[in-house]
Structures are given as C-alpha cells and as structure tokens.
Amino acid sequence: MEVTSETIFTISIILSLFLVSSAQSCKNYTFASKQVFTSCSELPVLQANLHWNYIPETKSVHIAYRANQTPTEWVAWAINPTGTGMVGSQAIVAFRYSNGTVAVYTTPIDSYNPLMQPGNLSFPVSNVSATYTNNEMTIFAVVGPLVNGTTFNHAWQAGPVSNENPQIHSTSGPNVESTGTLDLLS
Q1: In this predicted model, what pLDDT tens digit does every residue of 144-164 receive, in sequence order?
Q2: Where does the UniProt annotation place the signal sequence (predicted)?
Q3: What is 36-183's CATH number, 3.40.50.2300, 3.90.550.10, 2.60.40.1210, 3.30.565.10?
C-alpha cells in the first residue's frame, strides 16, 4: 500500500478530532461518582482544576479539586483567610501510600517549611475524601460556613512523598505561581 500525502493528511485530521473530542475541560468533566458541580476553574499552573457548588443558605461550598499526580506525589488545595500566599493557608492534602490506599486530611500551613501533619483548620471542613485514578488525585470536601464572604484567596500545590510523608515542594516555577483569588459566585 502506498502512503500518500492525502492519506497522511486524512489520518492527521481523524487523530486530531479524536484527541479534541476525548479531552475533557473542567466544564464537561464527568466524575465517576456522578457528582455534579455547577462551577469550575481550570487553574493556570500545576495541571489542576477546581469544581464547586456554593450553597448560600449555609454559606458553604462543596469542592472537588483535581490534579494530575504520580503515585509518589502529594497534592493540596487551600484557602488563605489572612493573606495571599502559602503561610496562613488552611489546606486539604492528599497522597497515595505505598500500598495504594489514599491519605487525605486537613492541615494548617504556618510556615514555609510546614510539617504537613493532620490538624484542625480555622473554619469548618467536613465530608473530606479523595480518589486516585489514572494518575489524577481528586479531593472532595464541604468547606464552611465561610463567614467572610464569597471571595477569598486560595492556593494549590504538589510535591514529593517520601517514607509515607509529604515533603517540601519546589520553590520555583509553577509551585510559586499557584495562588489566586476565587469568587464563588462567578
């Protein structure tokens, strides 16, 4: 069979259509758990997305934070009620243990070299869980009531795990660019 430029062009078109149709942006992402979120944001760094439903009656937000991750990394999503950076953030961390089970817990970030051990946050968080499938970690939680309005600073991170413990993340590139302001009503 002779391969012509027309054949290569046709195959290229078919492959590109397949790749475009198989990719899911945050707006059309389907969760395996069938949960539905009305809002989402494709975060600008660290290959992450945040999905949420804001519940005005309870001033709470149901979140799903998704991030690409290898089996030997941790991910975290946080609200910083007192500033714009990492210190002061109130985080939810998730990673895989070497046996394949998932660890997920809350931890306050009180320094640039935190221990990342389980701890209470400065606001209520409930229904915390996480799943790991196809090199993607998803953290689920209900945050609130949020008493300071619907706009806040948030941060997200990723780093290595060693001896079943999260280690310090990179201090350059995307890891220092992973903050922003989130308006739950947008």
Answers
A1: 998 888 899 999 999 999 888
A2: 1-25
A3: 2.60.40.1210
